[in-house]
Automatic annotation (TrEMBL), chain A:
Its main location: membrane. Pfam families: FtsX, MacB_PCD. Signal peptide: none annotated. It is found in: Cell membrane. It is a multi-pass membrane protein. The keyword Membrane applies. This is FtsX-like permease family protein. Residues 454-619 form the MacB-like periplasmic core domain.
From TrEMBL, chain B:
GO terms for molecular function: ATP binding. Pfam families: ABC_tran. It comes from Pseudodonghicola flavimaris. This is ABC transporter ATP-binding protein. PROSITE patterns: ABC_TRANSPORTER_1, ABC_TRANSPORTER_2. The keyword ATP-binding applies. The keyword ATP-binding applies. The lineage of its organism: Bacteria, Pseudomonadati, Pseudomonadota, Alphaproteobacteria, Rhodobacterales. Keywords: ATP-binding, Nucleotide-binding, Transport.
Amino acid sequence: MRRAALLALWSHWRRHPLQLATLLAGLALATALWSAVQAINAEARASYARAAAQIGAGGLDRLEAPGGPIPLARYVALRRAGWQLSPVLEGSWRLGERRLRVAGIEPLSHPPLPAFAALAEDATALPQMIAAGGLLLAAPDLAADLATALHEMPGRPQVRASDQVPPGLVLTDIGVAARLLGRPDQIDRMLILPDQPIGLAPLSALAPDLQRLPGRAGSDTARLTDSFHLNLTAFGLLSFAVGLFIVHGTVGLAFEQRRAMIRTLRALGLPMRLLTGLMLAEVMALALLGGLVGLGLGYLVAAALLPDVAATLRGLYGAPVAGGLTLRPAWIGSGLAMALAGTLAASLHALWRAARMPILAAPGLQAWAERAARASRLQALAGLGLIAAGLGALWLIEGLIGGFALLAGLMLGAALLLPPALAALLRLGRRRARGVVAEWLWADMRAQLPGIGLALMALLLALATNIGVGTMVKSFRQTFTGWLDQRLISELYVTATDDDQGAEIARWLAPRVQAVLPIRSVDFTPGGAAAGQTVTVYGVVDDRSYRDHWPLLQTAPRAWDRVMAGEAVFINEQLARRVGIGPGDSLTLAPNWQLPIAGVYSDYGNPTGQAIVAMPSLLAHASAVPNRRFGLRLPAAEVPVLAEALRQRFDLPASALIDNAALKAQSLAIFDKTFVVTGALNLLTLGVAGFAILTSLLTLWSLRLPQIAPVWALGLTRSQLARLEIGRSLLLAALTALLALPLGLLLAWALLAVINVQAFGWQLPMALFPLDWLRLFALALLAAGLAAALPARRLYRLPPSDLLKVFANAR
Amino acid sequence: MLLEIDDVTKTYAGASRPVLRGVSLTLAAGQTLALTGESGSGKSTLLHLAGALDRFDGGEIHLSGQPLSGLDDAGRAALRRSHVALVFQQFNLIPSLSVAQNLAFHARLAGRPDRDWIARLTERLGLAELTLRYPEQLSGGQQQRVAIGRALAARPALLLADEPTGNLDETASTAVMDLMLELVRESGTALFLVTHSQAIARRLDRHLHLAGGRVV
């Protein structure tokens, strides 16, 4: 009995192969975009975990100096006092154009690291590491570059490739790191090892100036990038939802077309429960098939996007992410689970209706459209309810979750309101239509709404997302460009190879330029309200350039005078928002150094807290502040001559000198790279929406013929009807695009004013870009036109005998 | 002569034998003709060819003196708009238009909307109370009356009707046929009707029978 029933059910798909292909394509697309995002997230998180495992030894407590580095002698003294500690020195190191992170550890005392474990079988590795030249461990691609770059370096260290080392990191012995970083006799922190002898003098007595900080469960990078991954996940979920619209529409139509068959099967004695079970199994089998195809596509999409996402994460957060993709069983499992759950959710309504269908009710496809029209009012109410719930969520739930709840409420609510809104517009259009064909066209479009509504909802979501995200990115870019103009005030930037050369360069430059602005900073771990944050404190000299240009968002009276007198501090927006402090509050940078906050400045693209104090104050509270980078003020025309003179006088490499324009171009290039993935996902979502329209039109094809054939018989040509089909699709897409504009702008506002603040710690002004809207409008029309072209072509080429079948067959 | 069908043949693609083998007949203006025959005998095919809805393989058809074989798609559509009207068994009304709009549709397409004539037709067909309804809200008999009204509203030279009462019960069928014949005569339209029913066929001016693809 089951076999016979299954064969009967399956015969529908055999007779409607296009519908089957549509269903599978919808499922595959939904799964592909979702699983691509998940693959990217999983790869990034695995990279963070690897990085944390390599260099973090995160579970251990550590000792740090609030004012910056710790002299090596302090470590030696504590070791002599019996404390089991392991020193770590970290810093940024330039290799040509690349900026690398060097982590120096003491291999004999440091807790086991995966990269070292891999070297355990090589008896020469450890001696090589602690020998004079030393050994550098790096990821394979970096190791190759390192070997080439260091080839001519005297007493060069050996380089070994290791898959265990995160990208962009060089892992080495602390002595080698000190040499590479130019920081002899310094360490950044000491790890307090778990097994300590009994009866030791307490650390608080031996080193009262050092802070003991608890071990961290997760990595900093993972926490910092959480919001980025949440954004990607939200995008993936949106694409998934758009794909499910296709599934919902196709499954709904298939069930409506099989109503007569279902009645017949029941009349022949098949129990409804068994029939429902069989239909459920059929849908799940299709979901599994579509999901598998989607996973394959998702893997390809993820592999294509991952290099850009890795660049984004490096640019925004300095997060080390590898560009290669690994196939993970958990990813396959979760992708298939999403495909099954999504299909079930999209099919539940159709299954429920089929299960409740009385045996003897008259079959009719028209009933489908009628019911959909009746549901329109309920749908509108649900839409309004969802929008209200989103607004309520923002008010009740704080943070990113509240922000995303607002977005979800707005988007889904607006999507549900679309069909009633379009119906109202079409009614208006019909009233104003002149001529019998125009009247029919408007009326026909309205009658088609229940069938094509879901696809238009998908288009609305895709367009609104494009407008919203596009406005956000472009507003950000515009603000960022303006901010760069304010922030990059020097005409030329120079980087010395070490502090001595830095001092020499500064002396040489003094009579040759209008001002030499040293760029010196050191990391502090503040106390008070900002405890637990790492704040990079910059010292600035008193120069008009800062007072005239620095991008201050909030200021207290006499702000610059007080900061330059060493009486106050400026902090960046991220620190202000994260800690909830601003002008009027104070910041405790070190136990003996507390300053009132005189202002807050914008600092886009920087994930960490930052502060600005007068240079003398910084030097008074921190020892060994590197003095290698300088901004130079001089007439722009003199930049090339001075740069050449500097290069020759100090034998500087080309990368040590960069002019303002090049730096701005570099920053903007990084910015643009950052949003490549967003643009790609935007385009893919729009593509899925276009496909949704195509599938709707194709699946509605069998319903269209009985409506078109009488008009043809009464004297309209097939080419006229085909043109009208395309016009109908274009008009519906145009109306949808018009309605998507306010929704997109609302989305942009929510992204800029709510999500960005929560995710990145900065708020941006919103700018409008009407030309982009026009471009998107044209793109939407193109997508709708292309989607309608295939059915229209089919209609144009349809033999009259096929149209005449409409008059001969009962439908 | 309004309609001249001369030695027309037609074979459907994929079919092993022709559905029409040299059919010839004529129909004068204002005349009514019934065509009967077994299922599959080619009655509907001949009707479709006469209405310029489909193409024939051999022979010629003249409608209002115009040969159909030389017409392209647009020419055939123009001929249908201006000279021919159709009534089908399935009614084939336009579901998105109201009864009033359906009634006026063909006349407006043909560029001959005559408000008074359409109002009279509406009254005669008993549809005055139903003009704001949509096809799905009507019974079968009511839908067929709308289809007849739509066809005659354009005052066509030729009305082609394919089993117009095939979907109706006997009472509705008789009422609809009475009305159609009455209105056809009143408007001076020629009627070419395909039916299974000998009783209906007998009520028309002429009666032909189609068998094996030929008029017998």
